[in-house]
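Below sits my pick:
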Amino acid sequence: PDHKTAACSGWDCTAQLQVANAMKVRNKWAKAQYVLNVGDAFYWGGLNMNCNAPPKAAWGGPKGEFSNVWQGVYAELANVPWISTLGNHDYGGFHMTGGWPQQIGYSFLNHNWIMPARYFMKRMKHPTFVVDYYMIDSNAWDAKMPGEMPEHNICSNHNYAAGQSCSNNGGMSSVQGCRDWFWGSYGAQKKWLEVQMSKSDADWKVVVTHFPCGYDGGWYKGLKA
């Protein structure tokens, strides 16, 4: 089906710029050591590259997109590490075939963009404490059956026109299997996270994810036990 979007108006048309400007003002005195990026970095359809292209293809067109949308917008803040996770719009928003593997690939081109995998742990040391950040891909919460919510569903019928597969990079092999791929991965991540947190000796353990913890509140509360 055709995809239709409503025209923005007012503040919404420059939301990213407004937030970036506020961050830069705050950074003048806060002097950020790093940024936690919870996803939707390339709103709203992801990087303009198919998910079956190799991650190293980030050196091509996506490099320019990073320059314009990240470095160009956030300026000096892009000179510190951005510990990043994927949002549903990084996959494509209403489809799954956006350039999400190239966001991972870009980590190996610019070391301030930290996303070596879809989920990972990053330890950050401060003078008086240590933090372990667990970056989780929670986008299963936007992965529905193909015929559901076509305007807000990574696994929607729009994928039949967009390419139908991301299997070259270990992603979804079909539109029909998209939902199960996301939910299977989310289940594996939860098991991984439980093991990693149980072994951590960090002073703080922080889970960073695109969909807020309220989507899976019972499980998150159990992590405190």
Helices lie at 15-30, 61-74, 88-91, 100-106, 159-162, 178-199, 217-222.
